[in-house]
Amino acid sequence: MRFLHPHSSEPNLRVAKMSGAIRALTLASLWLSAADGFRSFSPEPDFSPNVHETDNAQPALSVTSQPSRVLSRRGGNATLPCTVRRDGWPAPNGKMRIKWTKLTSGLLTEVDVLAAAEQHKRSYGGFHGRVRLRSSSPWDASLVIDDITLDDYGSYKCEVIDGLEDAAAVVSLDLEGVVFPYSPRLGRYNLKFRDAERACREQDGVVASPEQLREAWRRGLDWCNAGWLSDGSVRYPVTSPREPCGGQSTPAGVRNYGPRDKDSSRFDVFCFTSHYKGDFYFLPRVGKLTYGEAAAACRRDGARLATVGHMYAAWKLAGYDRCDAGWLADGSVRYPVARPRPRCSPARPAVGFLGFPDKKHKLYGVYCFGPGRRAARRHRGAR
Fold first, then answer.
1. What integer pLDDT is reported at residue 57 of this predicted model?
2. Residue 240: how many CB atoms within 10 A of its CB?
3. Does the pLDDT value for residue 305 go beyond 50?
4. What's the pLDDT score for residue 58?
5. How far apart (Å, rounded) are the C-alpha atoms in residues 144 and 121?
6. 3-class SS shares of the chain: helix, strand, coil, % to 5
7. pLDDT classification of 60: cutoffs 50, 70, 90
8. Confidence class of residue 373 from pLDDT cuts 50, 70 and 90?
9. Which among 274, 271, 376, 284 has a CA at the least distance from the CA of 330?
10. For a 10 Å CB count at each end of the chain, is N or C smaller?
11. CB 63 within 8 A of CB 264
């Protein structure tokens, strides 16, 4: 073993060498992390409105999305803003890549929407043929979505990749629409999650998101029955606290049961629908009908039985108002009241519900839905 003199400079030299090695390893680690988009430093994805990484050799790459929320409707179009910046540069690198993805509930996975590199562009899945880059300037990476569907609702990420740099921003697409509670003929609390998804589709809707339910609560939705939401949680909105709805002493709000087992738990469901293309109407001058007679009457008029979603959309978004109870496609009988009055929802606007009467013996009016009564009648007249 070799002993060093207490005043020898060799220990200091060793410390200096070790410090230099540590600095070199640290810089190498940082460089490798930068090449990987800094993912090693953040186990959770960071989807802040403006995320960017820098390279000291050139102006920092940044991506912004303003406004961060865009409102549209089913059947319409929307432009999700995304602006790329690199201060002092007149135009972006020709090899810069742009990628748009849709974030799923909880931001755990992403669905590809569009990818673009130089002159090559590709859209994916249900977005194919409906999305494109606006490209109003060399730095414009905004996404245009046409013929919007109910499934397009949600958050989108605009990611720009330029060499080792990767910057991203998130923008939300919201839809004008209405949330409505739904339970089947079997009665309340009979739907597993997949059944709930199917039920909403059959009623011209989708399972509502927690954000959509909260917004509906803010606008006055009050419903005691707990229902599925798109993230697999079960909740219900209460605007007037009372004993059957959690107690009078509990504050108003959206009660949350939390996530439930999708394969075994059974609840109702909250559906969301938006504007539709077509004509919702009460069929006049046909008198009272059984369910089968009502369906046949709509077909003769060039239409079909309307869904619960059609009625809610017409009531909420178009102010449809009629006191006549009528059959709908699911076998329920309802009526939409936009203008409260005696014997017709006197307290507030609402969709009245008379349950699921006997289809063969009970007689009611009928609500139909079609491409448009005038267009249908012209078509019949031409035959």
1. 57
2. 9
3. yes
4. 65
5. 13
6. 25, 30, 45
7. confident
8. low
9. 271
10. N
11. no
Tell me, letter by letter, the H, E, C secondary structure of 306-338: CCHHHHHHHHHHHCCCCCCCEECCCCCEEEEEC
How many residues in the chain? 383
Closest CA to 74 of 374, 320, 317: 317
Whole-model pTM above 0.90?
no
217-259 pLDDT, tens digit each: 999 999 999 999 999 999 999 999 998 898 888 999 999 999 9
Kindly compute the dihedral angle of the four CA atoms of residues 240, 241, 246, 251, in this order, to the nearest 10 degrees: 110
Predicted confidence (pLDDT) per residue in 273-286, tens digit: 999 999 999 999 99
Q: Encoding tokens for residue 380?
A: 């019949």
Tell me the two tokens of residue 125.
């899945």
Residues 6+ apart with CB under 8 A from 329: 202, 304, 305, 306, 307, 308
For residue 14, is pLDDT > 70? Answer: no
Token readout for 281 is 């109407």
| Gap between the Cα atoms of 300 and 382, Å rounded | 15
Q: What angle do CA 171, 173, 177 make, to 5 degrees?
A: 155
